[in-house]
Amino acid sequence: MSNPSRAIALYGTEEEVAPPRVLRAGKLSAELEAGNLRYIRWDGEEVLRAVSFIVRDRDWGTYAPQISGLTVQETKDAFHVSLQAVATGDGESFAYDARIEGRADGTLVFHGRGTTQTGFETNRTGFVILHPIDGVAGAPVTITHTDGRVVEDRFPEIIDPVQPMMDLRALAHTTPGGVAVNVLMEGDTYEMEDQRNWTDASYKTYVRPLALPWPYQIPPDEVVDQTITVTVKGHSQNNAASGAIALQPGAPEGDIPPIGIGLRPEDVATARGATETLKALGPAYMVLHHDPRAGHDCATLKAMLDVAEAIGAAPWLEAVIQSTDDIGTVAEIAALGQMATDLGDPFATVLVSPAPDLKCTLPGSVWPDAPDAAALYARTRDAFPQARIGGGMFSYFTELNRKRPPLEALDLVTFTTSPMVHAGDDRSVMETREAHAAIAASVSGIAAGTPWAVGPSAIGVRDNPYGAAAKENPTNIRQAMNRNDPRQRGLLGAAWALGYIADFASGGASAIALGGATGAFGVVSAPGDDPDPWYEGNGAVYPGFHVLRGLARLRGAPMRPLDLPASGPLAGVAAQTDAGVEIWVANTGPDPVDMSVSGAWQVATLDAACFATAANAPDHLDDLVAHDGPLTLDGFAVVRILMKG
To answer: Hey, is 322 helix, strand or coil?
Structure first.
């Protein structure tokens, strides 16, 4: 079998992505992408992650507007952009004009003005500003409120569950390199949320406070008119490092946690057909999702148990409780316990969540009726007296942070994440790694000594707490809130998975589950309705399979920290084994990266050049060859290294 195209190998899709246009005016630069600005830099240092005029629907989905009349003018000292755009959906439309001006004196002005002829329902229409978190988290910020008050504060260090800053007119801070940045926001009242809640690598300042009703209606002919003015001053002291990155494992700190995968009833048939391959994967546990609202019953649970038993993975029960009153909850959990007894009491770990908690409750909103958490966990313990009882959220860390469980009733705190709640492009997906350390520190604080586990998580969204459902993706594109995301099948997915495990293992997770067996979140190609280009359901393994298999085999081995920054090009984890120090490293970007290891070492590589071979050889990374000197990692390549001695 020949290798697929490079696009399929790296991203799992042939979708073409237009490169961003870099605008420059003296020391000021910004990337123009889909009519908005990203990576605003001064003197080469990032000062803002983005300034965007966005239009969202009632489910918090962001429209991809039709852009026309785009003009760009550039001189040495200035750039000017103008465009018209229309967002259309459900018979409604919102049209707006945008003007952007950047000057060499450090001034950037972005103006947006729009109206609707039909009336337009939206959860948010207007500007969003993203501050980066690397070197900014915990740093001072000067806040100017809408009434003119000026307050000195700090960006949150531990992740804030609600809005850390409200009633905003301007924000001023200094970058890690010493550049002064001021953002003036006009045309509405702005507030900030800590986007690290969703693993975004930013603080997001946005229009229209969440305390106001949403969704809301923009009436015909009402004018939305807003302006963002950014001013930057100073000279950046940040100097980018050059040359090969040297890997130097530190002293042992903690152990590699057990690695698991998820399973849902809809994937049982294809998972059963991939039993031998999944057995070779060797997951320590399998999280079996059970939701009576979806028709799940004893038969579907038995079918999932059979798969877990066949591949040698310990079964964890992840049960949604649909009853909201005390009497119904008691009866439902008792019935669930009896179901497990009838199946031979196979669950050593039982996770439960009320169904209402699978949907988001925004700050200031009324929480829906749900069983008392402590009583729910107590009833679960009665029904499963020999099991470890886990709870928290089956949805994202966001919801865990906003509704914290009673720890005295739990043995394990759980949550999941997805890297594409707010943005679906490749860079945003990989940049979520920058937030993982803060997530780990925050959940450790919430758990207060109780063990915590993360997952099953994947690039795709298994549930949508903010709308009716995750997005289907029949055309196999990159978009936020995808259920079946193409990068799950590509090298990018493998690099992201390696970084995910490395980040949460070093952050103190007691267990980490990623993806699933087959299907949209799987690691093995199997027949199905979703796009699967090149693989076509033929049973070959996706690149992420090799990462999970390799790290699952290191369970319990002492970790050796590599001290790789989350914002850098490499992600990795190292462990002390009887054979030496085993290192797993991924290039987290599309461009080649040079790295080196001191002493004698051997290496096995997973990249685009050997894609077909690896897809048809589950043990591909078992074959190590001697290497000396620097090693170049191709885009999103993964390497397994063994340092002797």
So the answer is: coil
- Residue 215 CB-density burial (10 A; 0-12 exposed, 13-18 middle, 19+ buried): middle
Phi, then psi, of 272 in degrees rounded to 5: -60, -35
Angle between helices 491-506 and 543-552 (to 10 degrees): 30
Report the candidate in 570, 587, 566, 603 with the shortest Cα–Cα distance to residue 635.
587
Rounded CA-CA distance 218/119 in Å is 6
Q: How far apart are CA 361 and CA 357, in angstroms?
A: 8
CA distance 631 to 598: 12
At 134-168, the pLDDT tens digits run 999 999 999 999 999 999 999 999 999 999 999 99
Burial of 346 (0-12, 13-18, 19+ CB in 10 A): middle
In contact, 507 and 444? CB cutoff 8 Å: yes
Q: Report d(CA 616, CA 399) in Å as an integer.
A: 39
Question: Please, are residues 218 and 116 in contact by the beta-carbon 8 Å criterion?
Answer: yes
Residue 51, both tokens: 């300034």
Burial class (CB in 10 A: 0-12, 13-18, 19+), 429: buried
**What does DSSP assign to residue 300?**
H
Indicate whether this model's pTM tops 0.85: yes
> What distances in angstroms separate CA 561 from CA 288, 444, 584, one per listed residue?
32, 19, 11
| Coil, helix or strand at residue 217 | strand
**Spatial contact of 204 and 98, defined as CB atoms under 8 Å apart:** no
Nearest CA to 557 out of 538, 540, 579 is that of 579
Distance CA 424, CA 431 (A): 11
What is the DSSP code string of 181-207? EEEEEESS-EEEEEGGGGT-SEEEEEE
Q: Distance between CA 521 and CA 484 in Å, rounded?
A: 7
Q: Distance (Å, rounded) from C-alpha 59 to C-alpha 24?
A: 36
Single-letter residue type at 112: G
In this structure, how many other beta carbons lie within 10 angstroms of the beta carbon of residue 297?
12
Question: Does residue 128 register a pLDDT over 80?
Answer: yes
Q: What is the CA radius of gyration of the chain?
A: 25
pLDDT in tens, 502-518: 999 999 999 999 999 99
Q: What are phi and psi of 529, to 5 degrees?
A: -90, -15
- Tally Cβ neighbours within 10 Å of residue 100: 24
- Contact, 217 vs 121, CB < 8 A? yes
What are 369-421's pLDDT values in tens digits? Answer: 889 999 999 999 999 999 999 999 999 999 999 999 999 999 999 999 999 99
| DSSP per position, 107-171 | EEEEEEEEE-SS-EEESEEEEEEEEE-TTTTT-EEEEEETTS-EEEEE--SSPPSS-SEEEEEEE
Q: In the chain, what is the straight-line distance between the N-terminal and C-terminal CA atoms, in Å?
A: 38
DSSP label at residue 619: T
Measure the CA–CA gap between 10 and 637, rounded to whole angstroms: 9
Instruction: Convert 539-574 to b/e letters by CB count within 10 Å (16 or more is b).
Output: bbbbbbbbbbbbbbbbbebbbbbbebebeebbbbbb
Query: Which tens digits make up the pLDDT trace of 195-224?
Result: 999 999 999 999 999 889 888 999 998 999
